[in-house]
Amino acid sequence: MHELQIFNNEEFGEVRTATVNDEPMFCLTDICRALELSQPSKVKERLSEKGVHSIPTLTNGGMQNLLYINEANLYKTIFQSRKPNAEAFTDWVTDEVLPTLRETGSYEMPKAKKNKSNRTALSSANMMVKNVMSVLEKAKVEPVFIAAEVKRLYTDLGYEVKAPLITDKETMPKLYDCTEIARELGIYSTNNNPHNQAVSVIIKKLHIPDSEIITTAFSRNGHDDVTIQYKPSVLKDMRSWLAENNYPTRIPYENSKGNQKVCTVVYRNAGRD
């Protein structure tokens, strides 16, 4: 018997989840709808078969066998979608959906252990690093962050790199993603979660210059990818915008389909310095 749960988001609607052998699975139909992917069958062709399960699910049309995908396939689908809302969807899944699944006791990530006796063969490590570097370079990640990711990869694979990097220094300015900006400025949803979507909407209104936007590599829940982060100056601009607009609780925006939407915001004291 699979434990079914439904998560709801103002922007993405309902996403059904299930657990299979204590691993979280996500309804492929819901993921494709949320990411505005019109052909689930085409998406399935690019996924690992080991992470796809057919699960009986009660729908408006009765009990049906729906496809559910594991976390690795979920992130792969998000990354390959290239949709404007992919980052916001990733934040929602990693900051709300997965933590909730863990809190209910239905899922816990296995902890990887690496030491010299079981570390990855150097030739394989080199090939993995080469492939990751190629992806990051195509994504136009800045060289210093590619170097940091290479250092992290070799260390995780059992080959510690001791060369210092600028990213290791305390003097390097902190970078913020939309969720971190929301926490810093006290921008929350009515569900008491950092409202990364509202932050993304405000950033678009500010027309932030490219020099303030940094593309970096990240590793989350065993998944390597790239993400957009912002310099501290963007935080200052966001704070000014909120003050000038009297901390609006409803922030209108237009989604990727051209429909008019509204972000409902609740502020905490952090945003009213």
TrEMBL record:
SMART domains: Bro-N
Domain Bro-N: 1-105
Domain of life: Bacteria
Pfam families membership: Bro-N (PF02498)
InterPro entries named among the record's database cross-references: BRO_N_domain
PROSITE patterns assigned: BRO_N
PANTHER family: BRO FAMILY PROTEIN (PTHR36180:SF2), DNA-BINDING PROTEIN-RELATED-RELATED (PTHR36180)
Name the UniProt record assigns to this protein: Bro-N domain-containing protein
Organism: Enterocloster alcoholdehydrogenati
Lineage of source species: Bacteria, Bacillati, Bacillota, Clostridia, Lachnospirales
